[in-house]
Amino acid sequence: MKKYLKILTAMVISSSTLIGVSLINKMMSMHAISKNLLEKEATKEFEWRFGNIKYRKKGHGNPVLLVHSLDVAASSEEWFRIRDKLAESHTVYSIDLLGCGLSEKPFMTYTNHIFAQLICDFIKVIIGKRTTVISSGNSSAFVISACDNDSTLFEKIILVSPENPDKGQLIPGKRARTYKAILSMSVLGNLLYNIAVFRWNISYNIRSDFYRKDRFTKDILDKCYEAAHRGLSPRSLYSSIVCFYTKKNIKFELSQINNSIVIFEGKHNKEASKVLREYMRVNPAVETVIIDDSNKYPHIENDKGFLNALNIYL
């Protein structure tokens, strides 16, 4: 009798713990999206085969596509300081990538190929003509892949603080696959994800990439926090990123591209020299621009200097 009582007690405690953790996960998500900051401005929708993609369109003139960095806390709001100015002389499209912002976040494994195909399909179906693409951070890798897939869709490629191409050689190992499987679990996976995207963690990770700390405002943090908690399965993108499923060696593709490629780096980005050196070694035609008073987000930290330099290439 005592044996069965112990088993029953253990089951009750386990069930209570699971219910408690589930409630905590639910409360965190509801709190994060309660302000609806990302929905304050009207969006359009691209019905793509892997999930509906939200985007904004502004202005008139030659098309420019803005592609934010690939992160669960990222969205098209990354371009808020330059989007309207660019729209004064261009048709500006700012997209929420699959798994990010207001776009759908299906339960799946995200790869470089999926995002490269998304960019190509978006230009073909929505924009319909050769487009200058401006990408940020690690998104630059799949923009390069997209251009290699179909260079006729691209006018110029402008990379803002791109990731070092050497990081594309990282591949999922046994530990990464195990961790991804754990993150796929309903309750435990959600708990680990919520810890990773806890408000303080997002603030620390993003703010450390700013030279001008005052430019990383509470409004930016609120939007990042909301973006990380929206959608069906935001942790699917997270697991794909941290377990290296989105990585790809793009060096061969980069060497084959004849389109104009310009890299913008912040003057205070300590990784910039290595990144620029590697890009130019693979493709000597790559041009570079250094923006003062900025680190990895020159388009936010020094938007005036960024736009002045950008206008030369558009």
UniProtKB/TrEMBL annotation:
Keywords: Hydrolase, Membrane, Transmembrane, Transmembrane helix. It holds the Pfam family Abhydrolase_6. This is Alpha/beta hydrolase family protein. GO terms for molecular function: hydrolase activity. The keyword Transit peptide does not apply. InterPro entries: AB_hydrolase_1 (IPR000073), AB_hydrolase_fold (IPR029058). Residues 64-306 form the AB hydrolase-1 domain. The chain crosses the membrane at residues 6-25. Signal peptide: none annotated. The lineage of its organism: Bacteria, Bacillati, Bacillota, Clostridia, Lachnospirales. The keyword Zinc-finger does not apply.
